[in-house]
Here is the input.
Amino acid sequence: MDAAKILSELSFKAVRSSGAGGQNVNKVASKVVLSFDLHNSQSLSDDEKALLSEKLKTKFTLQGFLILNCDEDRSQLKNKEIVTKRFLKLIQNALIIPKKRKPTKIPRSVIEKRIKAKRNTSEIKQNRKKPEL
Here is the structure.
């Protein structure tokens, strides 16, 4: 994955934000909407595209677009930086392939300890019975 290539494929749109800011909210478009087209991306291989579409299927639209919003700051530039970092982190985390888990063998001492405990409880229960005459 080449971050510089992917960043060139992103499209940004500035929208009027809601929330704090007073009258500034009504005048300035500080909210940033990032959109990324997965199917038409040349910076990702087919395997990476398949992995992303599988891991992030809830975040993609039906047309294959990933849309992220940011209106945390009053500055449009800071919102653009925040949403870009969020996007890159999301993509990098989704492209990580987890290691396969190797099942461990149960140690012999653990098995013997369990059998010994079972034998002990069995003897305790046997001793509760009335003696046969």
